[in-house]
Design goal:
Ald_DH_C, aldehyde dehydrogenase (NAD+) activity, Ald_DH/histidinol_DH, globular, 40% helix, 15 helices, seven-stranded mixed sheet, EC 1.2.1.3, 475 residues, aldehyde dehydrogenase (NAD(+))
Length: 475
């Protein structure tokens, strides 16, 4: 069993102020695979103090110096990628092949994207002939990250914060902390100055709340549930710190009558990816009535043919969901769905042959309407709801009838329609015809999916203040 109790504070690994062991569970086996410590207020204060102490110096370092250190971090990340893949596979259940490619690859891809955006990024510009506009680091940043895409989210926060001259305290998910611990080792090996990057493990009510309310924290960047995002916003309000939130989603995938013949198949596969544990998953499939029966059949076939197995096995299967609490929540929502809609595939319990581990059957509900629980709540598991529609207007209305607004999807060969619908969907992102987003594209949502944007230039700007200076020109 791995023992990872120490925190990384002020450039060194240090023991917790007081012992508070927390078991890390392998979701494929339900057995303890590691132990960490949950931090106390003393640990939080020590990390914030270190970050505050390092800020004045780090914020004044040359842009190229910061870029060189991030480049070195990228080299270390790539060299130790197998360690990182195994850590994420163990802690949150991503099948090892997926962990090696998508989970690890997301981190390196975003670091590369930030370095590219940083090359031409200007921290000052002339507003008039005598007035200058400056972009300056906001200060000490608390970064609170989730368990579902560990490196994706850590990199999307840590790298732009450090690049812009901020100092940080990272609180990763206590459920999946091993990858963050490893990332801290990479930062140390790269040679970042003491106090610039700090890591404290803890839970939301403890370290998370302490960071959110801390008077010496200038910004909180959080990825997780909408419920937790609301709590963080309230905790941060007393100190009026900036809060950037990337929260939940209930993405609509609109399949028009002229969509690609395999649009429903691709949509179902996308929904089940990462065991459905993605905030931008297309979990509501809206299908034109002329293609509806075909889509239900196709999606059900995908569900029935999706292999589910342990994360340690190689292959293209999906793994377990992350925890017992998550498993129980999903089972409860499947049970509710079975009382509301038609179960077309999957259902309650583990897949055949699996009697331990938090494994969920890929599940498809048909004849869903947008008033059903299964269509409104974020399941965060491999569960797809299929909803029929007749007109473009109806499809747009259904898609927008949700408290969320992260990612929606449009499938049609009609270019004008595709653009028209994309403009009317109330979400931060609209993916059309399976075309993925470019490196550095802004990631974020509307409504209860949060605020702020991550990635590329947009991600850098999140961590900056804007200052106007008059009389800049020499007199």
């Amino acid at each position: 069993m791995l023992e990872k109790r120490d925190f990384y504070i002020n450039g060194a690994w240090v023991a917790p102020a007081k012992a508070n062991d927390f078991a890390v569970i392998d979701p494929s086996t339900e057995e303890q695979c590691a132990v960490i410590s949950l931090g106390s207020e003393a640990d939080t204060n020590a990390a914030v103090k270190a970050a505050r102490g390092a800020f004045d110096s780090w914020s004044q370092t040359a842009k190229q110096e910061r870029a060189d250190l991030i480049g070195k971090l990228l080299d270390i990340y790539k060299a130790r990628s197998e360690e990182m893949a195994k850590a994420m596979s163990l802690e949150m259940g991503a099948p090892i092949d997926m962990s090696r490619t998508a989970q690890v690859g997301a981190g390196s891809w975003h670091i590369q994207g930030f370095l590219k955006a940083f090359e031409d990024f200007s921290f000052e510009e002339d507003y008039t002939s005598s007035e200058k506009t400056l972009r300056e680091p906001i200060g000490v940043c608390a970064l609170i990250t989730p368990w579902n895409w560990p490196m994706n989210q850590i990199v999307l926060k840590v790298i732009p914060a450090l690049a812009t001259g901020c100092t940080v305290v990272l609180k990763p998910s206590e459920i999946a902390p091993l990858s963050a611990h490893l990332f801290a080792e990479f930062v140390h090996e790269a040679g970042f100055p003491a106090g610039v990057f700090n890591l404290v493990n803890g839970d939301g009510p403890g370290v998370g709340s302490q960071l959110s309310a801390h008077p010496d924290v200038d910004m909180v960047s959080f990825t997780g549930s909408t419920r937790a995002g609301i709590a963080i916003s309230k905790a941060a309000a007393d100190t009026l710190k900036r809060v950037s939130l990337e929260l939940g989603g209930k993405g609509a995938n609109i399949i028009f009558e002229d969509a690609h013949p395999k649009a429903a198949k691709a949509g179902a596969m996308h929904c089940f990816r990462n065991s459905g544990q993605s905030c931008n998953a297309p979990t509501r499939m809206l299908v034109h009535k002329s293609r509806y029966d075909e889509a239900v059949e196709m999606a059900s076939e995908v569900a029935n043919n999706t292999h589910v197995g342990p994360a340690s096995d190689e292959g293209k299967h999906i793994g377990p969901v992350v925890s017992e609490a998550q498993f129980n929540k999903i089972q409860g929502l499947i049970e509710t769905g079975m009382s509301e809609a038609r179960l077309a595939a999957g259902g309650l319990g583990r897949p055949d042959g699996l009697n331990r581990g938090y494994f969920v059957k890929p599940t498809v509900f048909a004849d869903v309407n947008n008033d059903m629980t299964i269509a409104r709540e974020e399941v965060f598991g491999p569960v797809l709801s299929i909803i029929p529609f007749e007109t473009e207007e109806e499809a747009i209305a259904i898609a927008n009838d949700t408290p969320y607004g992260l990612t929606n999807y449009v499938q049609t060969e009609d270019t004008d329609k595709r653009r028209r619908v994309a403009r009317r969907l109330r979400s931060g992102m609209v993916e059309t015809n399976g075309k993925g987003f470019a490196q550095g594209s802004p990631f974020g949502g509307y409504k209860q999916s949060g605020n702020g944007r991550e990635g590329g230039v947009f991600g850098l700007e999140e961590f900056l203040e804007v200052k106007a200076v008059s009389g800049w020109a020499a007199e």
